[in-house]
Amino acid sequence: MPAPLLIETIQQLVAQALEKSRAEGLLQLETMPEIQVERPGNSDHGDFATNLPLRLARATRINPLELAQALAANIPTGDVIDRVEAAPPGFVNFYLKDSWLQQQVETVRQAGNTFGNVDSGVGRKTMIEFVSVNPTGPVHVGHTRGAVLGSALANVLEAAGYDVTREYYVNDAGNQMQLFYRSVLARYKESFGRESDMPENGYQGDYIADLAKEIADAEGERFLDMEEDQALREIGDIGREKMVGLIKDDLTGIGVEFDNWFSERTLFQQGEYDTAMDLLREKDYLSERDEALWFDSTKLGDEKDNVVVRSTGEPTYFASDIAYHYNKFVGRGYDSVVDIWGADHQGHVPRMKAAVEALGIEPERLTVLISQMVTLRRGADVVRASKRTGDFVTLRELAEEVGQDACRYFFLARTPSTQMEFDLELAKKESAENPVYYVQYAHARNASILALAREKNIDWSNGDVGLLTTSSELDLVRAMLRLPELIDQMAATLEPHHLPHYTLDLANAFHAFYENCRVVSSNEEDNAMTAARLKLVESAQIVFRRSLELMGMSAPERM
């Protein structure tokens, strides 16, 4: 099991000091406050700090600096903490021992690829459902942002101990699929010189013609004189499977994999749609009016009721979603579910929460993350996209132009709730200006130093980490040690966008170390220092590789 996080250990020390101050009569508190410990922005203020005295000042009517001094006096130092200081206007600052920091180099080396793992999610079964694009066309740039977010979030949750399922919900039922089937059949007939009208609002992209020709080459003319309904079913099945295969290939191309591809149609075939609707009816959440069936979501705080079955008898997408979430929570027993939706689905969140509650499931077990719009730029020019006409930039085109790693880093680097611009020119630059290049170059530099040491037959296994005393060396260790805390924080907040920014900070710390500390020395008198610094470089490489893997990026050894 991973060791307790250092920040949690310090929280416990503060709690014990608070309890001691209360026992001594200094504090009159009926309940213990929440203890917040943070890393100060300025390292002069310590490795960790708490503003608890400031927050307690009003309730206790005690000068916050005096309270900070009293707490600091009751916090013991030891193997980890060098000193504890009170600072104006009411902070308690903690400074770590150099000897403890030095020893963490060995801790990282021993942990290897498990470094950073925490156990906050152990025993929790969670699903992340993401992308879930209708199999009516290729994945485009807008979907890619959610794909990267879901993929990285799944990696983070696994590092935090969660039992994670990555799921793609294949929307293979409903009107859009019928339009897709009719569009493919029309283009198929045209490929043999037959006149055929495209359906109104059908799919016009070149990819439809390409798909139809592919089917024509493989299947011949057998659908031409077939009954329309049967032709639609058969060519539709082929077209859908081919499109799902294309989507799988495109996502795999940027390192996005799924544990399960869940078919919407199975909800109807296996009776879960009927079960979910019967449950809502029993609980008096369904009503008939205007010849349609409505979910009375206003009973649960939503702004308006929502149609689940149209007057034609056809279920809405919302009805399928209700059945799908019944399947997730009740059928398959997930403790928590994260849905990642595009910006156009933001208005659906309240009604989905209401539906989950109506099914008897605590709504807080469902989290919906909204991935906002993406604008592509090439220099000063905006790259336009339009899925309906087929004039859109696909994921495959983007990945071919800038590469998997740039795709993942840039899409992950912004919080998904904000709109973003993707700078194609920056993503391709091989310079420190490009954060992808800058971070991966730091890893490659680690690898080259270790390769040089091996070429020189240097054995650093017995290096003395106690020789690592400069600020550049110890600041690099401090940067490395942030990873477990970050994983714990990201798993709690579902915010993996902190990872790219962390890797930049880690790269800054490593490049500063590299500039200030010669690692492999030609002077035999420096052999002991060389071995110690090689251990530091080896541990830094572990943390770089781990961070890049969590983001789904490669860790190149040469650049």
Question: How does this model look, in words?
Answer:
The chain has 559 residues and is α/β, with parallel strands linked by helices. Among the domains are: 6-96, Arginyl tRNA synthetase N-terminal domain (Gyrase A, domain 2); 175-239, no CATH class; 431-550, Isoleucyl-tRNA Synthetase, Domain 1, CATH 1.10.730.10. It is built from 19 helices and 14 strands. The protein has helices at 6-23, 52-60, 64-73, 98-111, 141-159, 175-191, 206-219, 228-252, 265-269, 272-282, 317-331, 349-358, 395-402, 404-412, 424-428, 435-455, 471-493, 498-516, 527-550, and strands at 48-50, 81-87, 91-96, 125-129, 163-170, 260-263, 286-289, 292-295, 306-309, 336-342, 366-371, 374-378, 381-383, 420-423. A five-stranded parallel beta sheet has the order 6-5-4-10-11, with helices on both faces. Strand 7 and strand 8 (292-295) form a beta hairpin. Helix 2 (52-60) crosses helix 3, helix 4 (98-111) crosses helix 19 and helix 6 (175-191) crosses helix 7 (206-219). The chain is flat.
